[in-house]
Design a protein that fits this description.
Blueprint: H1 10-18, H2 24-42, E1 45-48, H3 50-65, E2 77-81, H4 108-115, E3 119-124, H5 158-165, E4 171-176, H6 182-188, E5 191-194, E6 214-219, H7 222-232, H8 250-255, E7 262-265, H9 275-290, E8 294-297, H10 306-321, H11 340-351, H12 354-367, H13 373-393, E9 399-403, H14 419-424, H15 430-435, E10 439-447, E11 450-458, H16 463-476
Parallel strand pairs: 2-3, 2-4, 7-8, 7-9
Antiparallel strand pairs: 1-3, 4-6, 5-6, 5-10, 9-11, 10-11
Helix pairs in contact: 2-3, 5-6, 7-16, 10-12, 10-13
The protein binds glutamine.
Length: about 500
């Protein structure tokens, strides 16, 4: 019952469970109590899995008592974004169209965590089909930023980030198609890793844009991220896009010394960054330099085209992926209609929210025969140029650094009327998805009292260098120890 248990890292939780200093049940109860106290003010979760979590905790305690070995995530409470399937439990993807859908299988990412001893305590709110940067586009309700309930937590994994920031769980799973792990991590003051394309299985992840989507973790320390990444990464025969590569020893990477690390900064493209956010970024570079890393300038000449490119590629793929929600196979079906086409149309009209509709229409347009060459094909070419920009940059550095976002968390409602303003939030995060490279967001202090993030981007499949660099940063700074104010227990949910 001690509230202190909810301040522990995953590594410390696992240590206590393995040494029998704490039981899984006691740990899960502490987190469920914390969740019950703070969730009304934040709204991070769509469902709390109290009974399932306690059953699993007790089962794990019994197994440990009988001599079983503690897994690498033994007893660690985890929150899972509601686009990862768990057998028999509703998966909504933040959409009314999936209401009532219960998948008959579990996502590999979740299964790997559970096999390692982690215990899922809830499914996190998100922008519908992961389309958004604020979690205001959830088909159910928005999530609030634990640092300031009038502000957004970022998105689309806003529920996952808010849950970790508010100490409901020490770690969470999210997905990142154009920044949806890194941007909410930055806005909520936690660490988020988008692994390289192909590093983590997407089996059981509801698809948004298949050439960009990746599953990844959020936590409060780089050590915890390394711990969960070791469990999460690796080839899966059920996902043909998962790479046949060995998973390195991420724990060894975080223990390394900083000597020889070269950080590349694309100063020319950082012009639009808000003053205080930029100041925190410069200080973060200073901390890394003081620790022994060197900072060089790099060029990413095509980065200014990344948002436009992303919103063509992502919407094109989404329009195709979301064609399956027709009222026949999944979730919602418009009632009382005899004509098949009318049933498709009405189901999609009732089930999808405005942002999803906008993207399906835009994606269908850019793929249409008259405009394919002008938009989709052109975007694919620019995508290649962006990837080459990074290849060139990595000739002179080991990681590219930018602020994760141009500003700290914006106010709720501030950008919903103007989708373009919302899309421009993604300027620094979408390039990694277009290039398929890994990205890590680290808390690097406060701007106007709100957290902002340092983003590090690495070579394909070089998560190791990012974790190494992130661990060095957390050894020499204390930004990750900052915690949001306690939310009012009376609840502020609008
Ligand atoms: N904010 C971006 C979008 O709206 C990225 C979303 C994501 O990564 N899932 O598409």
């Amino acid at each position: 019952m001690s509230p202190v248990l909810t301040d522990l890292t995953a590594a410390e939780i696992r240590r206590r469970v393995a040494s029998r200093e704490a039981s899984c049940e006691e740990l899960i109860r502490a987190h469920l109590d914390r969740l019950a106290a703070v969730e009304p003010a934040i709204g991070a979760l769509l469902v709390t899995l109290e009974d399932r979590a306690l059953d699993r905790a007790r089962a794990q305690d019994r197994a440990l008592a009988a001599g079983a070995e503690a897994g690498p995530l033994a007893g660690v409470p985890v929150v899972v974004k509601d686009l990862l399937n768990i057998t028999g439990l509703a998966t909504t993807c933040g959409s009314r169209i999936l209401e009532g859908y219960r998948p008959p299988f579990t996502a590999t990412a979740v299964a790997r965590l559970e096999d390692a001893g982690a215990i899922v305590i809830g499914k996190a709110n998100m922008d519908e089909f992961a389309m958004g940067s604020s979690t205001e586009r959830s088909g159910f309700r928005p999530t609030r930023n634990p640092w300031d309930p009038t502000r957004v937590p970022g998105g689309s994994s806003g529920g996952s980030a808010a849950a970790v920031a508010a100490h409901m769980a020490p770690m969470a799973l999210g997905s990142d198609t154009g920044g949806s792990i890194r941007q909410p991590a930055a806005f909520c003051g936690v660490v988020g890793l988008k692994p390289s394309y192909g590093r983590v299985s997407r089996y059981g992840l509801v698809a948004f844009a298949s050439s960009l989507d990746q599953v990844g973790p959020l936590a409060r320390t780089v050590d915890d991220i390394a711990r969960v990444a070791t469990v999460l990464c690796g080839q899966d025969p059920r996902d043909s896009t998962s790479a046949a590569l060995d998973v390195p020893d991420f724990a060894a990477a975080v223990a390394r010394e900083p000597e020889g690390l070269r950080i590349g900064v694309p100063w020319a493209v950082l012009e639009g960054v808000e003053t205080e956010t930029l100041a925190r970024f410069r200080e973060a570079l200073g901390s890394l330099e003081a620790a022994g890393a060197s900072v060089v300038e790099v060029e990413l000449p095509h980065l200014p085209h990344a948002v436009a490119t992303y919103y063509i590629v992502a919407t094109a793929e989404a329009s195709s992926n979301l064609a399956r929600y027709d009222g026949v196979r999944y979730g919602h079906r418009a009632p009382g209609i005899i004509d098949l086409e009318e049933m498709y149309g009405r189901t999609r009209d009732e089930g999808f929210g405005p942002e999803v509709k906008r993207r399906v229409i835009l994606g269908t347009f850019v793929l249409s025969s008259g405009y394919y060459d002008a938009y989709y094909l052109r975007a694919q070419k620019v995508r290649t140029l962006i990837r080459r920009d990074f290849e060139r940059a990595f000739e002179s550095c080991d990681a590219v650094a930018t602020p994760t976002t141009p500003t700290a968390a914006f106010r709720m409602g501030e950008k919903t009327a103007d989708p373009l303003q919302m899309y421009l939030e993604d300027i620094f995060t979408v390039p990694a998805n277009l290039a398929g490279i890994p990205g890590l967001s680290l808390p690097c202090g406060l701007a106007g009292g709100l957290p902002v993030g340092l983003q590090l981007l690495g070579r394909p499949f070089d998560e190791e260098t990012l974790l190494h660099c992130g661990a060095v940063f957390q050894r020499v700074t204390r930004h990750h120890e900052l915690t949001p104010p306690e939310p009012s227990s009376t609840g502020q949910q609008a």
